[in-house]
Amino acid sequence: MQNIHLRSALLSLVILTMFLGIWELANQPPKAKQAMTEYEILMGGSEPQARVPNPSEIGKLAIEELSHPFYDKGPNDKGIGLQLLYSLKRVLSGYLLAALVAIPVGFLIGMSPLMHKALDPFIQVLKPISPLAWMPLALFILKDSEISSVFVIFICSIWPMLINTAFGVSSVKKDYINVARTHELGSLRTAFLVILLAAAPTILTGMRISIGIAWLVIVAAEMLVGGTGVGYYVWNEWNNLDLTAVVFSILMIGVVGMVLDLLLARATKLVQYVE
């Protein structure tokens, strides 16, 4: 098993090196444009066009930004670490609120066919609505961009958790419940010690899906409302025509999203192992 992990890591490193090398070589500006003088530009020559930055340029910026990630020099000049913390705060606030609602309601739906049939039409209507479609209404009602962003994360996070919880609870083997009854466990103890533990891997899978969606949505939400956060950081750097910073921030979004997914994937494996 360790040999497979090592080989896959080496293969990933080779693929990454080849990709970055091709990118670096293919994205070099033509020598004719490099040699253009200021006099030629003043005499009517066109300025060199903007281009996607090279990996070396992005790496240089990454070293500079990650050396001091939490600086704060004003509303439009904050470090990438600080911007990521703003985004994570909003994501985790909305995500945890969604979990507090989705898991109990999903548990109820999974246990009761009557509640499932009663609530399913509402779920099917609300689930396909884009989370960002709620933003104007949230801003109008809540009058606060921060709380509105948390609300949007709440809305996008709740459905995968609720549906997976309901499915996991309804899929618990009847033998487990019969054994609990044989041991004369009460309803609450059966729910927490038997049903919840048996459904835990499915519930965590839903939570893993939700955190990925929440991290996707917060970037778009922050682009809309502005102020702070990694989404605002990307949009602000685009307005400054700093493509190097834009690509760097995109990579940081991907890295943080990967870490969040890995944490929940590890939790899911741990629960499966305990089970």
List keywords for this structure.
79% helix, MetI-like fold, mainly alpha, 275 residues
Overview of the structural elements:
- The chain is mainly alpha-helical and 275 residues long.
- The chain folds into two domains: 1-51; 55-274, MetI-like (MetI-like fold, Orthogonal Bundle), CATH 1.10.3720.10.
- It has helices at residues 2-26, 31-34, 38-42, 55-67, 80-111, 113-126, 135-142, 145-170, 174-182, 187-225, 230-239, 243-274.
- α7 (135-142) packs across α8 (145-170).
- It starts with a helix and ends with a helix.
Task: Annotate the secondary structure layout.
Elements: H1 2-26, H2 31-34, H3 38-42, H4 55-67, H5 80-111, H6 113-126, H7 135-142, H8 145-170, H9 174-182, H10 187-225, H11 230-239, H12 243-274
Helix pairs in contact: 4-12, 5-6, 5-8, 5-10, 5-11, 7-8, 8-10, 10-11, 10-12, 11-12
Got a strand count? 0
Task: Encode the helix/strand succession as letters.
Answer: HHHHHHHHHHHH
Quickly name the level 1 CATH class of the largest domain. Answer: Mainly Alpha
| Sheet with most strands | none
Quick description:
With 275 residues, the protein is mainly alpha-helical. The chain is 79% helix and 0% strand.
